[in-house]
Structures are given as structure tokens and as C-alpha cells.
Design a protein that fits this description.
The complex is a heterotrimer.
Chain A: H1 2-12, E1 19-24, H2 28-37, E2 46-51, H3 59-67, E3 72-77, H4 88-105, E4 113-117, H5 123-140
Parallel strand pairs in A: 1-2, 1-3, 3-4
Chain B: E1 2-4, H1 5-15, E2 20-27, E3 30-36, H2 54-57, E4 61-70, E5 73-78, E6 85-90, H3 92-105, H4 113-120, E7 122-127, E8 153-157, E9 161-166, H5 169-175, H6 186-197, H7 209-214, H8 221-225, H9 234-238, E10 245-252, E11 255-262, H10 283-302, H11 312-316, H12 323-332
Parallel strand pairs in B: 2-6, 6-7, 7-8
Antiparallel strand pairs in B: 1-9, 2-3, 4-5, 4-11, 8-9, 10-11
Chain C: H1 10-29, E1 35-41, E2 48-53, H2 73-76, E3 83-87, H3 89-100, E4 109-114, H4 122-129, E5 132-138, E6 141-146, E7 150-154, H5 161-164, E8 176-178, H6 192-198, H7 202-215, H8 221-225, H9 250-263, H10 273-277, H11 285-299
Parallel strand pairs in C: 1-3, 3-4, 4-8
Antiparallel strand pairs in C: 1-2, 5-6, 6-7
The chains are: A alpha/beta, B alpha/beta, C alpha/beta.
Amino acid sequence: MIMGECQVTTETKTFEPKIAAFLCNWCSYAGADLAGVGRFQYPATIRTIRVPCSGRINPLYILKAMANGADGVLISGCHPGDCHYMSGNYVARRKFALIDSLLKYVGLEEGRVSFSWVSAAEGVRFAEVVKGVTERVTALGPNNGVFKVQDGGGTNE
Amino acid sequence: MKITKEKFGQSFDALAADYQIIAPVSDAGGVNYKAVKSFSEVKQDYLNSKLPPKSFLFPQHEKLLSYKKEGKDVTIKNELKVGKSILFGVRPCDAKAMLLLDKVFKNDEYTDPYYYERRDNSVIIGLACNKISPTCFCSSMSISPASSEGSDIFLIDLGDSYQVEVITEKGKALMAGLEELVELSAEEQALVDTIKSAQTASKVDVSTITAKLDKMFDSPFWDTLHEKCLSCNACSFACPTCHCFDISEEVHKNEGSRVRTWDACMAPLFTLHGSGHNPRDKKKARWRQRMMHKFNYFVHNNGDIACVGCGRCIKSCPVNLDIRQVIDGVNNVELVVD
Amino acid sequence: MVYLKYKTGGEQMSSIVDDIRATARQLLTDGKVDVVIGYEKGSLPLKATPCFVRSPQDIDKLIWDETCENNLAAFSTLTEGKKAIIAKGCDSRALVVLLQENQLVRDDLYIIGVSCQGVINKKKIEAETGEILEASIADGKVTVKGMVCDKEYTFTEVKDASCQTCRYPNPVLEDIHIGGSIDVPQQAAVFADVAEMENKTAGERQAYFQEQMSKCIRCYACRNACPLCYCKECFVDCNSPKWLTGGVDQAENLFFQAGRVLHLAGRCVECGACSRACPQDVDIRALNRKMSKDVFTMYKHESGISMDSNPALNEYSADDPEAFLVKE
């Protein structure tokens, strides 16, 4: 069924992934802002969700995004050492490493969920990261249903 | 009268064209009821399914209706889809359990269309138990390993043939196409008699439990009974008569659906009110409710005990809280006379 | 791997039971505790059941053998008053984590430590013998009369998977130790089972977990049997935000199991209570073991082995591995 959907989408139009991007308020969100102010082009695939700190990202956010049908998830925070709250991203880093490993273990494709550090000064780099992530998710195709809820009732946007 | 399994299988396969046939199959989770296309898929030698066949009539998670709002227009779609079905290989306990579910979902006051449409459109082919599990205690619950109550057609496995009993009109209609019933040999008749007279080894006494429970609401018996319970839903979900559910809305932007999901009295959330008040916030109250509902309230409301002795709750309980021991415990309570 | 100082069954075992009972009697008569949480004989063969002893006349119910598989630490947070708990190695590790997380008051807890040689996994036996009619354990042999066949097993054959890889059979925290202790050779944790799964292709793993998740009925026996799943409101029950719909779709089941495993990251003590509690025999352990392996290899942490070591996710280091970062 998932395969079927996938074929329909790719045959009728080019697949444009929907990517949920959780960005920390102090660095990556500002980086995205800088990319905008500086007019650095990047694909309009991400749906930005601003969080106070990468340490605030609950692992369930990532799972829920995919359950609701996101084709990819991007998570970005301050570079280690630069956290506005001193240690938020250090704590987050441990969580992210475990999440990433577990998701791959249960069979989620590499590249579906991406993590990066982007500072407020890295507008160009933010655009590059989004480009890279978009390319990878596009190559993977739509959410393959490892976590996508098929009949949750009305969540098929 | 009997029919060879070969002939029966041919009719079964032919019926699969018109009916959705639900039968026990062996899958990753053990023996369970699933839709099959051919008799060859049916698991032959099994004690009972791991999960009861009730989920066919009353699914664990069911979309009742869906809706969509566009401008000022709201469209509502009824999600009930029913076709003709056959439930094959239902054990006597589970067939009896369906009669009990009928009392809940179709009574004088209320008829649940989702349950009843499926119920009315399905034929139940019961199958006697040739082997009896040590946790079975149906003989104590006014049925037996070979009782045909609740079945439309009842079969007894004789090795390479089935002894056939047509119980209801529905069963008769289905059997109309089945020819070539032959008489049993003397040996087979003896086998049928043995199977029919079999009793479960495990027994409980429920003769006075309802009256006893009438007076036990405040008994100290409940104070310690629940202690080892983990409050999981394993017993309720494995029970062929448990029927509590929760209805929720799954809404996303301008569309959504109303879904019905199994709920279980063992979970603290079961009775949590919107106000935050929970009338059964303690395990003690929840265990009392479980016993009261099955052995007292249900009897008062519907005239029957809501337990059929299938033993699934005993097998699935992670802490071995055995309902047979709880029944014994209730029987042994000495009531304080005021 | 694990060398025993004493034999399974036999005299040693019965003297352990006697000592447990004597200790329980002493504690109750001295008024040191209100309740002793232990095991009594269950109603099914090869199954012990948790037992709450409050008065000396119930003390003789207490038993100790290879069927005592529940993790009693799960009851420690649910039972009020001062309590004594019979703790195996894994149970004591769970108690350590609970104490570290301030879920228990040390002074209200009396830990009766017993070294454990592993517990029997009934499901393993029943897969072959059918439902067990009768069984006995003697001299390291488990003799089973089943509905399909009769069989004799050595204890090692029917030991639960968690006990096969157990490195802490002796309680790590206890107020009294009963019976002998078990020699464990000093060696690093081995994760052969995880490695085997990791070596499969992503597609194979995906298919495996989808099959496992298709069995899950979301009864939450795993969560409730887990001593460390003590949240007042579990994320699966939360309705604002509503993480899950309550459906039994395999993707949602995986969401639940993966979410649970992530919450147990660096906390899981690998007692295997979740897998044994599962009425549907879902391989929950496969996920927990993976998490344990990652925590161990990345952060050199094993949960609950000492009161002094901080939980892995409560700490960080400037040079933690960053292999998960997106390749640019």
C-alpha cells in the first residue's frame, strides 16, 4: 500500500518532501533567519518549528512528526560549547546519538532523520544543510510507514 | 451425521467466494482468528486462540465515522462496512461469550449498529474442544468443552471428518449446500460421546458468588487482593466477554474521525473524569469493580455471569493473579453479620 | 560464563528459603518493616507470584527458586509504608536507579539480597511441550510434562534470555545477603545478540520489528511490569498533546515501544521483566538491549550498578561521539 502511494506520487509529479525542522531559538533559527535576510536560496521543503534549545527536543517530537506523515525530520542546535544555556546541547547530543542509532536499528532509512549544528552566523551553511537534507529525503521518497500511522483518523494531510 | 474434512474443505473454499471467513490460523503471535481464503490455511490442532474472536465483532480500534468541514458545509461519512461472514472454529467458551456480548450491544434499550450489523451478518461455526487446557474451567460456568450454545453450526473433530450438528436456522441455511452427510460409525459415536461428556479438570464454584458479592462491597477482602496487580490491560484484552470501550475524536485541522477503542477497568485512566476526579483511582477499587462487574452487576443486569471460563486471563497475567483463586477467595470470605 | 558456588536446587536452595523466612519473621516481629515483598508459589507450574507478607503467620508462604521471575522493584514504588524487598541482582539495580531518581526513601526500604542464577522462561518451554501440566526442578534439571510432549531440560537451556547475558547476578545494594554469591568473571559486556541484529540489512530489521509490533496489543503489561516505568502519566495516556491514537496499527505500536525504550535509555537494568510480562511474546528486549549497548559503548555506562555513578543521560562530556551528525 505504501509502495503504491509512492509510485503514484512519483509518476504524477515530482516528489517534494515535507520536512519538519526543529531549530533552536538561539543559533539555528537565527541561522535560518540569516539565510533569509541574506537571500540564500534553499528548497522550500522545511516546516520550521522553533524550540528554546536543542535540549528541549523530546524524542517523541521526532516520532510524532513521522507518525503524522513528515517525510523527513531535521534537528539543529548550537554548536557544542555555544549553548545559550551552557549545556543544553551537550545533554541533547547524548539523546540524539541514541535516537539516531535506535531509529536505524528498527529499520528507518539513513537520512530520514538528520541532526546538525548550525550557528547564528552560518546562514549560508544553513541553506546548504537544508539542500543536503532535502536531496537525501527526496531520494528516499515519501515516508515509508515505519512510523507513519496509516489509520490514525484524519491525520492524512 | 458427519462430513469428511475433504468434502467440508471443498465447501469451505466455495463459501469463501461469498463470505469473509474468519478462522484460526497460526501466525507470529500464536494461534489467532484471521481472514482466510482456503480451508488449508486453517490451523487444525489448537487448544484455543491466544486472543478471543470478539475483536471480529468488536474491533480493538474502530473508526465509527469521519467528518470534514469545508466552509460552512460539514460532510459526515459513516464508516460501517459489513459483509457476510463466517466465523469458523469458535470454541464453546467464545461462542457463549458472544451471547453475553449480545446482551450488552443489543438489548431493549440500545442496539449498537457497529456490533450488531456484523453479528447479524455472520454465521458461527463452533468446534468442540478435544483437548482441554489446564487453565480451562468452562465446565464450572454452565457450559462444557463440547457445548453448542451460541454456535449456528457445531462441529466435533473426529480426525478426518467432522460430526455436524445444525443448531439454528442461520446454520441450516448455510448447511443447505452441504450434501453428503453420512451416519457415524459406532466407534465414532463412542468418540463423540467421550468428547461430549468431557469436563474441565479445573473447577470453581460460582453457585453462590453473586449473592455473596451483594454483601461484599465493603469487605476487607479487597484490601489485599489487588496488591500484586500491575494494572495492565492484558486480562481485559484477552477476555472474550470484556466489552468496555472509549470513544475519542481524532481531529486534524478541518477533518477528523470518531474512533472507538477498547478500554479496560484495570487502567487508572479508565474512570478518570474530565474534572480530574477519579472515582476508582486505587487498584483496590478497580479489582473490586472487575469482580463485581463479571460476577454480580452483569448477573443483575443481564441474568448471566460475564465469565466463560476460557482461562485466557490466567495465561496472560504477568503476575499470575489467577481469577480462579479470586473466586475461591470470595467463596471463603466469612461475612460479618451486623 | 557464570560459575556457581552452589548447585541449583537441592539443599542450598531450601536453606535460602529458610533464611528468607527467618529474616522476614525477624523484620516483621521487630516492627522494622510493615510488609515483606517476596514470592509465593503460583497457581501455574513453573510460575511464582509476588506475595505481600504483613503478618508472621503468612511467612511460610515465601519461597525462592528459579521461577521467581517478576521484578519486585516494580512494587516498591506502589507499596506504601516501610517495606522489605527480596531482590535479585537485577531487582537491586532497579532499586538503585529508583533511589537515584528519588522515587524511594532509602530508610523505608530494607533490601533482602539473594544471588540469582537466572530465572526460567516458561514460554521457551511451552513452545515445545505445549501447555505445561506438571513440572519439577531438581539438580539443575527441569522436568516438564506438557500437553504436546514431556521433556527434560537442563536449567541453562530454559534460562531467560536476560539471564543468559546477565553480568550482575549478585545484588549491588542490599541490607542483608542470603545464601552464597555467584562468581562472575571480570569481562566487558558482550552484546552478541545486538550485533547479530545489526548485521542484518535495514530491510530485514524493518521486517523483523514490523512483525514483532504486529503482535502487540498495547495492554501495557511491559510498561507496568517495568520497575522504572513509574511516570504518573505515561506519554501513551497523555491526551494533550496526544501522542498516540490508541490504535493498534504496527507503526503506532513501534512508536510506543520506541518511545518507551528511549525513556529508558541509560536507565534500563535489563531485568527482562517487560519481555516476560508480554502476553503476546513481543521481542521488546531486542530494543532495550540495543539501547544498553549504545549507552555502554558510547558513554561507558551501565545503569544501576552503583549509587555513585550518575545516569548516562544526566551527564555529558565535551568529547561525546557525534557520528549521528548529518554528513554535509
